[in-house]
Amino acid sequence: MDSSFWINKWQAGEIGFHLPQVHPLLEKYSQQIFGQGQKVFVPLCGKTIDMRYLSDQGHSVLGVELCEIAAQSFFEEQFQQSVEAESISDDFDAYVLHDIKIIVGDFFKLPQPLEGFNVIYDRAALIALPSDIRQRYVENLKQLCPTANMILITLRL
Ligand SMILES: C[S@@+](CC[C@H](N)C(=O)[O-])C[C@H]1O[C@@H](n2cnc3c(N)ncnc32)[C@H](O)[C@@H]1O
């Protein structure tokens, strides 16, 4: 799948995957699963409100997302603030506010490892990828966050 598939979806507003509230499973289990003040990595983050929730719980959050519309909308909708992009490499721009950073670019090009992430939070990321790429996604995550625990919210078929 090339990146234009997702960019087109965001441009057309076809984002049926986006939840207008915190994911109920995150709300239900986060106290049990998360310790205090974790560094949480959110791959393929979209503009999920879960990032705001995690930040409000005292965690710092790093999301990665292909489409800049998602990052811009996240900060506008959650904080009523427009955030300027900062170029951090040829491949990535970063949007940062409070304890939340969203890196815009291709997850598969992230430099490895990311330092100090305790938790990976995956909601609709693994399952958004074509099945032949999922193994590579998992291997990448292991390289990026070798010591992190992972919370995976997915579907059972
Ligand atoms: C199904 S959505 C889930 C978004 C978010 N996790 C949520 O729960 O709302 C998948 C997201 O992954 C993004 N995406 C797809 N491939 C990507 C890649 N290679 N790198 C970064 N983001 C990607 C898409 O733009 C889309 O926003």
Shape: globular
Distance between the termini: 22 Å
Quote the average pLDDT.
Answer: 95
CATH homology superfamily name:
Vaccinia Virus protein VP39
Low-confidence stretches: none
Name the beta content range: 15-25%
Entry keywords:
binds S-adenosylmethionine; 5 helices; single chain; 157 residues; Rossmann fold
Describe this structure in words.
The protein is α/β, with parallel strands linked by helices. It has one domain: Vaccinia Virus protein VP39 (Rossmann fold). 34% of the residues lie in helices and 21% in strands. Strands 3-4-5-2-1-6-7 form a seven-stranded mixed beta sheet, with helices on one face. A hairpin with a 2-residue loop joins strand 4 and strand 5. The longest helix has 14 residues. It is globular, with a radius of gyration of 15 Å. The mean pLDDT is 95. It binds S-adenosylmethionine.
Element layout with pairings:
Elements: H1 3-12, H2 24-33, E1 39-43, H3 50-56, E2 60-65, H4 68-79, E3 86-87, E4 93-97, E5 100-104, E6 119-123, H5 131-144, E7 149-153
Parallel strand pairs: 1-2, 1-6, 2-5, 6-7
Antiparallel strand pairs: 3-4, 4-5
Concise summary:
By secondary structure, the protein is α/β, with parallel strands linked by helices. Helix content is 34%, strand content 21%.
